[in-house]
Design a protein that fits this description.
Layout (H helix, E strand, L loop, with lengths): L1 H24 L9 E2 L14 H6 L11 H15 L11 E3 H15 L5 E2 L7 H11 L7 E3 L1 E5 L3 E4 L7 E2 L11 E5 L4 E7 L5 E5 L4 E5 L3 E3 L2 H8 L4 E4 L3 E5 L7 E6 L3 E3 L8 E9 L5 E9 L3 E3 L6 H10 L16 H10 L9 H4 L4 E5 L6 H11 L5 E5 L2 E9 L2 E15 L2 E14 L11 H4 L2 E4 L7
Parallel strand pairs: 1-24
Antiparallel strand pairs: 2-4, 3-7, 5-9, 5-12, 6-8, 9-10, 10-11, 13-16, 13-19, 14-15, 17-18, 20-25, 21-22, 21-25, 22-23, 23-24
């Protein structure tokens, strides 16, 4: 009891300290204080934090799930049926401005539908939305907007509005910026549809989303140059959490880094420990061109990896303990981006959002509130395949790893979980890629992962057994 009283006292003191700082400064950041997790997550052991532990338990870790032709067919199905990915090669030379305006109106209605806060804890008012409306300058658009093609030249935050201002739904929840739509790595092809009134932002369309990115992070190129990134004859795919790109073979002139799953054109045969790649460049005068970059051989793979359970499990564990980043904040990844990145290494182009990812592949089971916990876990353990099956709950998605003593485990990029305590639920922050069982959160108001799982799918063609 003494330890509990000490903990409550500490939290109270910290909360009072924050309030005092705010009262004296009047402009300090408002930040919610959460509880950290233990060094070893409940229900796990040290061996579980290795790929080998789960590969040993897999019945066929090296069986090829789909070959390149089958993967290409699945990718076409994702584009055609789910309509969540675009083939930029099929975009016309102009784009109806009504689509941009309609999307902007939808975004504005979503944004103004509830109270939102600045980083300093102030409510966002009408002055902010008026500023955004002026900056977007949608009234200047012609009926048909000429599309310019380009490639992202520096890591770019894709924003809901053309601003770097941070806005939050929940006061003090500073890791969840409502205006962060996504993040685009170097080498991402885009179609530029519009420019902000101040000239600092482009409205771009990429294969998965639309939004605003800073003009200095896009190289406008001719179609043949963009085609090199859209359909490279030879390419490397990034397998490291962050592959550093250098401008020189000696690897001393840092350029940028790219995340797992990024595909970049190969400029020359890989020799020694270095791979030479093609990268888009943009100087301060806005002149764009293609240049050469260099990455370590051990951070990439020439072409896609084979689609096996071993590939996915090892790829997921390569990202173990990588920090969580909502929508690509901080140059990291969230739960769905983690899934997307791992499967991109084998050439599978999954959707960006978890709800759409949960519609890809062969359905194993769906659950509702009437499904008993023990029965649900049994169905997952008996029917899901380690490494190639996804466990989905509203707002979150995980890669199923396998089971131990009848308990199902997953690897996922998660922000945290709720824990029931004697004084009510507390939030424990994980904020990284982690291995967990499905029982974290048992007894809390929201329930554990297992209770909230509503579907299980294996990423393979629907007609496969």
């Amino acid at each position: 009891m003494k330890d509990k009283l000490h903990q409550v006292s500490y939290v109270q003191v910290m909360a009072i300290s924050v309030l005092l700082v705010l009262s004296f400064t009047g402009c300090a950041t408002v930040e919610t204080l959460y509880h950290s997790v233990p060094g070893m997550l409940p229900g796990t052991t040290r061996d579980m934090k290795t790929a080998g532990y789960w590969i040993e338990r897999h019945p066929f870790p090296d069986r090829v799930i789909m070959d390149s032709a089958e993967i290409a067919s699945l990718n076409r199905q994702i584009i055609g049926e789910l309509e969540v990915r675009k083939d930029l090669r099929e975009l016309p030379e102009s784009y109806p401005s009504s689509k941009i305006r309609d999307r902007a109106q939808m975004v504005m209605e979503w944004f103004t539908s509830r109270t939102r806060y600045t980083k300093r804890g102030r409510q966002v008012g009408r002055s902010f939305t008026r500023t955004m409306e002026r900056t977007m300058a949608l009234d200047t658009l012609p009926e048909e907007v000429p599309l310019r093609l380009g490639v992202v030249s520096r890591y770019a935050h894709q924003r809901v509005f053309p601003t770097q201002d941070k806005i939050y739904t929940k006061l003090g929840d500073i890791d969840f910026d409502d205006l962060q739509n996504s993040a685009l790595d170097v080498g991402t092809p885009v179609a530029v549809a519009h420019e902000s009134a101040d000239g600092r932002w482009y409205y771009v369309i990429d294969e998965m989303s639309e939004g605003w990115i800073e003009t200095e992070r896009v190289a406008i190129l001719d179609r043949s140059a963009v085609d090199l990134f859209l359909n490279p004859k030879r390419f490397v795919v990034v397998t490291a959490p962050k592959a550093v790109i250098y401008r020189d073979r000696e690897m001393t002139d840092y350029h940028e880094y790219v995340r797992t799953g990024v595909r970049l054109p190969l400029a020359a045969d890989i020799s020694g420990t270095v791979a030479e790649i093609v990268i888009p460049l943009q100087d301060r005068g806005e002149n764009a061109s293609l240049g050469r970059g260099f990455v370590k051989k051990d951070s990439i793979h020439a072409g896609y990896l084979p689609y096996t359970a071993r590939t996915i499990i090892e790829g997921a564990f390569a990202l173990l303990n990588e920090p969580y980043g909502w929508g690509g904040m901080y140059g990291e990844q969230d739960c769905s981006r983690f899934i997307q990145q791992v499967f991109a290494t084998v050439g599978i182009d999954l959707p960006r959002n978890s709800s759409k990812q949960a519609q890809v592949g062969r359905l194993i089971a769906e659950f509702d509130d009437t499904t008993q916990q023990d029965e649900k876990e049994r169905i997952i353990v008996d029917g899901a395949a380690g490494g190639t099956s996804l466990l989905y709950m509203r707002g979150h998605i995980m890669i199923y790893l396998g089971s131990t003593a009848g308990k199902a485990f997953a690897i996922h990029d998660t922000w945290g979980y709720r824990q029931k305590t004697w004084r009510g639920d507390i939030v424990r922050v994980i904020a990284r890629v982690a291995v967990t069982d499905l029982h974290l959160g048992t007894g809390s108001r929201r329930g554990d992962y297992l209770r909230r799982i509503i579907s299980v799918r294996t990423i393979e063609a629907d007609n496969q057994n």
